[in-house]
């Protein structure tokens, strides 16, 4: 893993990054290389450097918050989304998919999400989004869709009567993740920058890279959380421990999340938010900015990748060798 991390950095895939492998009993190995802010300093990242998680927010914040709300009786996973939002008038087809279908990316909602198109509208955002037509019949097929998680974030705030970032702060504190937070964050060598929002602009640094999350003040159900490899390792250890001990309610929710719900491609399925492989023995999720979290629950092992690969351009293809090796290492030991 160390050789591959250095190779992708040398190839220009990312300015730097941290790999952290560990086990449920707290054994950790940290590999770090490159630079956090290459334009300013050669200072290397470490396990406490904060990275924009992008879509990893879905499984680090939104998915566990939905689990808590289900356990508290505030949400019904098989009820339509409209039941978790304020009353709406008129036709609201995008409020008909269930919360389960949103978590499994089988909602049939439109795949594109442009919240800037709603600027100046009089209706609240959730109603504007729910009035959008569906692209497919809910439950028919898997298609990765952000807008469902945007709506889940709004639904969580509604059923709790509290802002999403406050709910997340309480969750992260309970899980022992004090550095994990929604932005914005002050610029510092502890925070990895991403890329300019448009050509000629300063790099985003401590602000959500995702445009739609940015329009929501950096607090959204699909993106916006910043975390360190250290905190993600703590999260992984809590999930693995809950799985092993069947600790309710987190353990039950995690086990439910690992059950394959929809086929992505042969050998890969979507559980509740998580991607599952090897018959549900491995679960993982990626973030567009260059982050990943892998879990092997039965083996009690995990692997964290935190990079700001988007700093150098589209991250998915350039990080593919590192991510492929991470999955192989986790599953083969």
Automatic annotation (TrEMBL):
InterPro entries from the UniProt entry: Beta-lactam-related, Beta-lactam/transpept-like, Diverse_Enzym_Activities
Domain Beta-lactamase-related: 11-327
Key word Hydrolase present: yes
Pfam families recorded: Beta-lactamase
Highest rank taxon of the organism: Bacteria
Hydrolase is among the record's keywords: yes
Keyword vocabulary terms for this entry: Hydrolase
PANTHER family: BETA-LACTAMASE-RELATED (PTHR43283), BETA-LACTAMASE-RELATED DOMAIN-CONTAINING PROTEIN (PTHR43283:SF11)
Protein name: Beta-lactamase family protein
